[in-house]
Design brief:
The complex is a heterodimer.
Chain A (H helix, E strand, L loop, with lengths): L4 E9 L2 E6 L3 E4 L3 H10 L5 E5 L7 H12 L6 E4 L5 H10 L3 E4 L1 H5 L2 H10 L4 E11 L2 E6 L4 E6 H10 L4 E6 L11 H10 L4 E4 L5 H9 L5 E4 L1 H4 L5 H10 L7
Chain B lengths: L1 E5 L7 H11 L4 E5 L2 H5 L3 E4 L5 H10 L3 H11 L4 E4 L1 H4 L4 E2 L5 E2 L6 E5 L11 E9 L14 E6 L1 E5 L5 E7 L1 E9 L2 E4 L7 H12 L2
Parallel strand pairs in B: 1-2, 1-3, 3-4, 4-13, 5-7
Antiparallel strand pairs in B: 5-6, 7-10, 8-9, 8-11, 11-12, 12-13
Helix pairs in contact in B: 1-6
The chains are: A alpha/beta, B alpha/beta.
Chain lengths: 252, 208
């Protein structure tokens, strides 16, 4: 039986790990390579780096971090943030990333998803969708870390990226991100019910039952969280034991 | 011992290189190349594969003499070869991803899309799944039945001769995830991404 994945996410800015509260206030909390190794040794099913540096001058920084991490962690490594060109993807994969996550570039031009999945295979193309609730059962896609509206419906967009070869969707609720009040389960349901590719839930985890909700109520194949792991509130092992005790299958 | 990871410019093989390098440290001389002479003088070969069946076969064919060299190595000289993911799938006669494409034809069978029961199972099959060991394969030495391995694929290898199957995994049906036929080994899962158990399997192959 396929297990539900637990993915710790490390937000990296200028080579250091940070985690934003609603994407604004940033706190410094460590060295990314060391953190990744701790997670991988602790039983993380995958590791995700989100590069929020975004400025071109510092792109080499994340590539160097990926290169070092990939030599020490032997679980899948996903890298996102500022992935805009085929060359960006090539550089990250060559450095040792297994998947890249594309956000703004996919919204701007969905053909980029098609081109990337054709060139590198769907298995390594994750499309990150940041969505914000606009009315009952209606969500809009946002870009640039939640700053820009697009007018695009999140469900339509999710289906579109699937058609264009995305292998997975990383779905973040902009309303919930950083609030620790749980995933937007309705948003998750809307997306998981209308697509056939795995969906990774993100944004809003504050306690263990939130992860349970994401999988069981929201239908997510994987759950991603940052702060709850990062500040040591829970270890990966705690999460897995909790989910296992609630009959959610995980890799123990 | 000389082990070669075949680099035929298809897909991302960084993780394969990293994990084999980690395991090979100090005991095996590891090369990453598509150089025919170096492949010929190797003791073992690793054939990775990412992307579609068609793109991998096309890339293999683009390297002049590579397919014949691999055949001579694995079929004529019967030296150990491990195929990973599409690397394993290419052992088949034919694959149906993108377009009907002729495989290497080393193990009779075909590669077709996983029947996901009309969307009941999401594809690709991504993540950690248990393997059910069917026969005592040398690469599973000290690896327990029901161990977790990491998968990413939408297509499955269906061999005609079921006796080559060394493990299956359960995803909509029993999917073949490992084969052993004489000196030929293959895994549908990614040992290079399967944590300590995956590294153990790589070690088993390297110390065969």
């Amino acid at each position: 039986m396929l297990k539900n994945r637990i993915i710790p996410c490390l937000d990296v800015k200028d080579g250091r790990v940070v985690k934003g509260i609603n994407f604004v206030e940033l706190k410094d909390a460590g060295d990314p390579v060391e953190q990744a190794k701790i997670y991988s040794d602790g039983g993380a099913d995958e590791i995700c780096f989100l590069d929020i540096t975004a400025s071109n001058e510092n792109r080499e920084t994340i590539i160097e971090i990926v290169r070092k991490t990939a030599k020490e962690c032997f679980v899948p490594l996903t890298v996102g943030g500022g992935v805009r060109t085929i060359q960006n993807i090539t550089d990250l994969l060559l450095a040792g990333a297994d998947k890249v996550s594309i956000n703004t570039a996919a919204v701007k031009k969905v053909d980029f998803v098609k081109e990337a999945s054709k060139k590198f295979g769907s298995q390594c193309i994750v499309v990150a969708i940041d969505a914000k609730k606009i009315s009952e059962n209606k969500w809009e896609v946002f870009t640039h870390g939640g700053r820009n509206k697009t007018g695009i419906d999140a469900v339509d967009f999710a289906q579109k990226v699937e058609e264009n070869g995305a292998g997975e969707i990383l779905l973040t609720s902009m309303d919930k991100d950083g609030t620790k009040s749980g995933y937007d389960v309705d948003l998750l349901k809307a997306i998981t019910n209308s697509t056939n590719i795995p969906v990774i839930a993100s944004g809003g985890v504050g306690s263990l039952d939130h992860l349970y909700d994401g999988i069981v109520k929201g239908g997510a194949s994987a759950v991603l969280a940052a702060s709850i792991f990062h500040y040591g509130e829970y270890k990966i092992k705690d999460v897995k034991e909790y989910l296992n005790s609630k009959n959610v299958s995980v890799r123990l | 011992m000389n082990v070669t990871i075949v680099d035929y410019q298809s897909g991302n093989i960084s993780s394969v290189i990293n994990s084999f390098t980690e395991v090979a440290k100090g005991k095996v001389n590891l090369k990453v190349t598509s150089d025919i002479q170096k492949i010929k003088s190797s003791d073992k070969i690793v054939l990775p594969g990412q992307g579609s069946f068609k793109s991998c076969v096309d890339s293999l064919n683009k390297v002049f003499g590579l397919v014949d060299t691999l055949k001579e190595f694995a079929i004529t000289n019967k030296k150990p070869l491990l195929g990973i993911c599409v690397g394993l799938q290419m052992f088949a006669d034919v694959g149906y991803e993108e377009a009907e494409t002729k495989g290497l034809g080393w193990i009779p069978g075909k590669v077709s899309r996983i029947d996901n029961q009309k969307g009941k199972f999401k594809l690709p099959h991504i993540g950690w799944n248990e393997i059910e060991i069917h026969k005592n394969s040398k690469i599973f030495k000290d690896i327990k039945n029901k161990s977790h391995m990491y998968f990413v694929h939408s297509y499955e290898f269906i061999p005609e001769d079921k006796s080559v199957i060394s493990a299956t995994t359960d995803y909509s049906s029993k999917i073949v995830c490992s084969i052993e036929k004489d000196n030929l080994f293959g895994t549908q899962f990614h040992p290079e991404k399967s944590d300590k158990i995956g590294l153990k399997m790589i070690d088993n192959f390297l110390t065969l």
